[in-house]
Please model this.
Amino acid sequence: MTEQNWPGTFEQAILSHLDAAYNLARWLTRNEQDAQDVVQEAYLRAFRFFPGFRGGDVRAWLMKIVRNACYTWLNANRPLQDAAEFDENFFPTDSRAPNPEEVVLQNDSVALLRTALEKLPPNSREVLILRELEGMSYKEIADITGMPVGTVMSSLSRARGRLRQVLTTLMNGDPVQSSRRMAALNAALNA
Model:
């Protein structure tokens, strides 16, 4: 690519992934402002090194930069803390109007899932977010995290198991509602 057209190419290639970059940063930093700062730093790094980008999956390249910027920021600013908080409603809305009981159960299920995700270690949360929320392939996740594809698959399996355990533990606090919550949670996840 020539020096004259690379800034335009950067905008076309990178800016369309801003939401995914912010989503990952938001989950890892547990704070909206911190996520914005990290994404800004990551985009500056990407802009600086874009002329050396040799092709391939630009989304995976960018997400790796965002991930590394997050962990650098976390190590500098929160060396003794794990990461993650997320308060956006990431489930699509149902096209039919739910009744009030369904609304309460759905909100409860979303809050339960959010709480469970926040209780996971950052590496488990990271692979779940990249795979389930961002829809990335195992290979893309491997490129981003630097793990072999087989390790990504086993990490994802362990993360799903941990999520299941945390959800079960959280739901056992209210045994009467747990079956209703699980049904509503399954409905929300499958929507």
Notes: The chain has two domains: 6-77, 100-190. The chain is about 70% helix and 0% strand. The longest helix spans residues 149-171.
